[in-house]
């Protein structure tokens, strides 16, 4: 089951990408996001919104990542939605921005829903975007 949709996801509907936790590799994740959203026939503006949201979530995580960390990205594809979960090991004492921060306002404005968790030296941000009914 995916965390945000509550729907079962099969192995065929999940894509995992791991890249160095470095801003220079975020284009790989943005491109994968756009490709998967296009596969679901998202509108062009929805695809761009999701690309920006993934970029913002990754930037939030890169700011608290340990040196030489890897950024793990899990894409879950369902019939009408794409869930992106990004995870990184965190530096001791590192905290995600507050949900009242500008970064969180961006995430919630650009996606259907967004959530974050931090435990055992790792932080994750999950983004869910559903395709608009007008498709």
UniProtKB/TrEMBL annotation:
Q: Which GO terms describe its molecular function?
A: kinase activity
What InterPro entries does the entry give? Answer: HATPase_C_sf (IPR036890), HATPase_dom (IPR003594)
* Pfam families xref list: HATPase_c_2
Q: Where would I find the Histidine kinase/HSP90-like ATPase domain in this sequence? A: 20-87
Protein keywords: Kinase, Transferase
Q: What is this protein called?
A: Serine/threonine-protein kinase RsbW
């Amino acid at each position: 089951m995916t965390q945000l949709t509550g729907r079962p996801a099969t192995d065929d509907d999940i894509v995992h990408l791991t890249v160095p936790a470095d801003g220079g590799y975020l284009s790989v994740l943005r491109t994968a996001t756009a490709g998967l959203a296009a596969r679901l026939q998202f509108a062009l503006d929805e695809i761009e919104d999701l690309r920006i949201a993934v970029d913002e979530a990754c930037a939030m995580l890169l700011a608290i990542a340990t040196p030489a960390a890897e950024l793990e990205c899990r894409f879950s594809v369902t019939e009408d939605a794409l869930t992106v979960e990004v995870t990184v090991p965190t530096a001791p004492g590192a905290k995600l921005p507050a949900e009242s921060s500008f970064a969180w306002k961006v995430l919630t404005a650009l996606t259907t829903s967004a959530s974050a968790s931090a435990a055992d030296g790792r932080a994750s941000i999950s983004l869910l975007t559903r395709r608009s009914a007008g498709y």
